[in-house]
Design brief:
With 410 residues, this protein is an all-alpha fold.
């Protein structure tokens, strides 16, 4: 008598399932499933699952009964048609009472049409009820499956299998969308979040490894896994750091280390070295943009139009401060040379974002490429404003000196 299975069956049996529930045009499948779940005598996930399975089976049997009734009524309706046609044929060949019989047939056809119209309406109504019952049965099946998935969350997370975790996570999300706000699954969103974090923790290192090795298939697979977990931004950050920022920062730091070893007390000499180095660095950025536009179009076709732009802007934000310091010099000519070198090289990088070497458009928006170029050249803005201020002060001092000399001559 204490068997959970028998208890669940008694719970399912005590729930009254009326066809009137499904005949209501305002039928709410989620509310109906809520009532079905509430009928379980125990809220233990295993008991809830069994209870919902019992209710699902009862619905399925009712749906089958309705299908049989529909089939019988349809066959009966189809049988009437040949008899009516035969009657018409006989009347048409009976010339002695043609007029009277035709009038009688017309009256009978009118009556038959009215009866058939009513029968069609009845069949349509019954079909709607059947469809609602099937929907309810499918929802119950999803609810039962969701109960099992929720109960196995910890075990799934412990497996460390990113593909299995991704599949379970996708199934849980589908189940929650179908079932809705059922009290029995109140903790399901929290368990989904736990799986999402676990999946990101496992998938990101594999993605970084694939990115570093240039493994397109593996990188795309991990991208799909992270997309399922709702962590697509992790793909952007991992890509930018691994494929663009880290390699180009090595070149930047190599110049900085070399500068430290051959440090000169003459600031202009250091500025000249930087101005001479900028073209090679900007060319490296352009080459990376060209290469990465091609690679991301194969590995991440859905995000390729954003990834390289995002990576370049991340690089620019990391080097902006030091770039600004190195570009600052008292020589306006040297500053102009550095700016021209950077603008030319970074301009090529912006063009590489928009058009391939074969002349094909990449899909990157011109506004996005322009914004990335503006950010790359942003270090010069502050220095240029400073030069304007110094130039204004110099002109003012020259004007005051000229006025003083003129006064002395008088």
């Amino acid at each position: 008598s204490g068997c959970p299975c028998s208890t669940a069956r008694r719970g399912a049996a005590t729930m009254s399932i009326s066809i009137d529930d499904f005949s209501d045009p305002a039928f709410d499948v989620k509310a109906w499933v809520n009532r079905a779940a509430a009928g379980c005598p125990s809220q233990d996930p295993e008991h809830v699952e069994k209870h919902l399975a019992e209710v699902e089976m009862k619905l399925q049997l009712m749906a089958e009964d309705i299908s049989l009734a529909l089939e019988e009524q349809s066959v009966s309706g189809l049988r009437r048609i040949p008899r009516a046609v035969a009657e018409i044929d006989r009347v048409e060949h009976d010339t002695k009472s043609l007029q009277s019989r035709i009038q009688g047939i017309l009256r009978r056809l009118d009556d038959a049409e009215g009866a058939s119209r009513d029968a069609v309406r009845t069949l349509a109504s019954v079909d709607k009820v059947k469809a609602r019952m099937e929907h309810a049965r499918e929802t119950l099946a999803n609810a039962a499956g969701l109960a099992e998935l929720v109960a196995s969350t910890d075990a799934v997370a412990a497996t460390g299998d990113v593909r299995h975790i991704a599949d379970v996570l996708a199934s849980m999300r589908r189940g929650l969308r179908v079932v809705g706000d059922v009290p029995e699954f109140a903790d399901a969103p929290e368990r989904v979040e736990v799986l999402e974090k676990r999946l990101e923790t496992l998938a990101r290192p594999e993605l970084v490894s694939a990115l570093a090795a240039g493994d397109v298939a593996r990188a795309e697979e991990m991208r799909d896994v992270l997309h399922v977990s709702g962590k697509i931004q992790s793909v952007f950050s991992a890509y930018a750091e691994t494929r663009v920022v880290e390699p180009l920062l090595r070149e930047w730091k190599a110049f900085a280390n070399d500068t430290h070893k051959t440090a000169s007390k003459n600031a202009d000499e250091e500025a000249k070295r930087f101005a001479a180095w900028v073209p090679s660095y900007a060319a490296a950025v352009a080459d990376a943009a060209r290469r990465e536009v091609s690679w991301t179009s194969r590995a991440f076709p859905k995000e390729s139009h954003e990834l390289v732009v995002y990576a370049w802007r991340e690089l620019s934000s990391l080097t902006k401060r030091e770039f600004q310091q190195r570009a600052a010099t008292k020589s306006l000519d040297l500053f102009a040379e550095t700016y021209a070198n950077a603008a030319e090289g970074f301009g090529k990088a912006a063009r590489a974002l928009l058009v391939t070497d074969a002349g094909e458009k990449t899909g990157v928006a011109p506004s996005a490429a322009l914004a990335a170029l503006a950010e790359a050249l942003a270090p010069f803005e502050g220095v240029r404003a400073r030069y304007a201020e110094l130039e204004e002060r110099a002109l003012s001092e020259d004007g005051a000196l000229a006025a003083a000399l003129a006064a002395a001559d008088e």
